[in-house]
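Revision sheet: structure tokens.
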Amino acid sequence: MDLAYLWFWIVGFLFVGYFVLDGFDFGVGMSLPFLGKDDIGRRQIINTIGPVWDLNETWVIVAGACLFAAFPEWYATLFSGFYLALLLILLALIARGVSFEYRHQKDDLKWKSRFDWMIVIGSAVPALLWGVAVANIVQGVPINADHEFTGSLLTLLNPYGLLGGLTTLLLFFTHGVYFVALKTDGQVHQDARRLARRSGLLTIVVAAAFLVWTIFIAARYGAPLLVWVIALAALAAIFLVLSWVFNLRDREGWAFGFGAATVMAAVLTLWTALFPNVMPSTTDPAYSLTIENASSTDLTLQIMSWAALVFLPLVLAYQGWTYWVFRKRVSRSRIEKAAAAAH
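Predicted:
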């Protein structure tokens, strides 16, 4: 296989990892107003991702770095054209990270409430805008002969892009609520299960509409892997329904697992629909960025391949070890004892 094609799928794998892992982070953050009935409950929710949120976020840094090295033309067009959307995502991620670190620095409810809302907004904005961005990449955007994006932020806010954003918002929210149910006990656990029932149904409807639209777009472009697009979209739908069913049966581990599989299958559906383009042009198909005309030299890709072969397994092993160490539930009683001891 040509190394450029290999790296198209490696970059896709990195974005799959990012959306699966940071996706439930976003969902946990967005769930605060719905599940955190008091400060102890909100601390319980935040502590479910406290040890792992920053590790999850590094996936997008690695994915962006690999995109820059393997596909510099794609990186240049994407980051210059989608500059405002990506800047809003970056600012939201900064606000969320600051909130995690500063929320507990002062024992004042108003202080904590402000940072709680920063967590909510800092989670919702990326969850929405990542979907808008990826949907527009798949659908195609106006690109000229110099591979420059000629639209604006409003260009991205088209019906398909907004539906993609709403889909990721709801998908990540439900995925995060499953994680809260998996990692907590008591009232928060029960409330999370009930919330996931409602949000799961809405997610199924919206995601189904988005996946069907994606299949039509792939068919319109004559995607060579259209059969795989349809198969992956069907898998994503099945996994999403199964996650909802297992949540109904109070099997939160299975619900979360199938929720993660849903995100994985959905992202792979979009990635497969894109192939062999990396950024289709709606101005003229001849101006589209493809795997071949957007990639780096063979020497660059060879060096990257050897580096990935060595370091990627180490990163995966470290991430797995981290989740194993922090696998236990976050109990309300332990947080109450810690709060009492602090006073």
